[in-house]
Amino acid sequence: MKSISVSGNISISYQDVGNKNNPAIILIMGLGAQMTLWPDALFYGLVDQGFRVVRFDNRDAGLSTHLEQYGRPSLFKSWLSARLPLRSQAPYTLEEMAEDTLALMKALKIKKAHLVGASMGGMIAQLIAAKQKKKVLSLTSIMSSSSSLKLTHANLKVFLQLAKLRPDKPNRDAAVRYNIRLNQLIGSPAYPQDEQTLKAQAVETVERAYNPHAFQRQFAAMAASGSRQELMTKVKAPTLVIHGESDPIIPSQEGIKTAQQIRKSKLKIVPGMGHNLPPELAPKMIKWIAKHVRKSELKRAKKLAQKGQKRDWGSAPI
């Protein structure tokens, strides 16, 4: 893992694998999650498909900068502020997190990239695709939404259960237990993981980095950023939307809605998939994303060839 400064006080930890001349895929992770939640099978599988693949820790996650000076925003107030005219001040926004991604691309000398975002990472990728069109070759939005934060019966139940378990103070054992229960609650019903496997993953995650309040700051950023639905009509990059049919956090209807809002986007609803990336689905994910990226590259190559032909024709003697 390497790290690079993307602004005055933000350092981003990242992993960059694959031939630098190959098409670049940027993986953007979700709320409170470290880049290691992208399954190695998926990450290296895309590299094996002939891509340069970058995954990274968002600010306030993993080994990137933790913004402790902003304290511990209330989850309830953050959610409520997204629905009231009088909004609470968030430590930062999804737009600023999108700028982190763009700054990382610039530092790595990646002018244009294929963006793949999961959950909150999908929201960040959507913002970049809508506002920085020239930098995005394709968009893949996984288990994400273009809407503002919504409470449903399913996700409210999950949030209330997790609230009882979330440790207030640094406590390794409590953090491991919380991580295990989190993955049990949001995981894919068709691809369950046994508790021993979940414990090993939880220990690895907590030992790599642990900050009990960073999740709340990222949640506040999501709430402050509101809806992106009007922006979706501005997305011109070829788009693939992937969503689990059994997602308890962001209902599959949100994925369907996002696909409807983006012109000519492709939609894949995955039976039995929850709000996670089970390793068993890695082969399918690799196949879908690789096919989507290659089609986008082919479309780009044809456009460049057409532009070249027009230039040659325009400069020909009459």
Automatic annotation (TrEMBL):
Pfam families: Abhydrolase_1 (PF00561). The keyword Hydrolase applies. Residues 309-318 have a biased composition (Basic and acidic residues). Keywords: Hydrolase. InterPro entries: AB_hydrolase, AB_hydrolase_1, AB_hydrolase_fold. GO terms for molecular function: hydrolase activity. Gene3D superfamilies: alpha/beta hydrolase. Residues 299-318 are annotated as: Disordered. Residues 23-277 form the AB hydrolase-1 domain. It comes from the Bacteria. The keyword Secreted does not apply. This is Alpha/beta hydrolase. It comes from Pseudoalteromonas obscura.
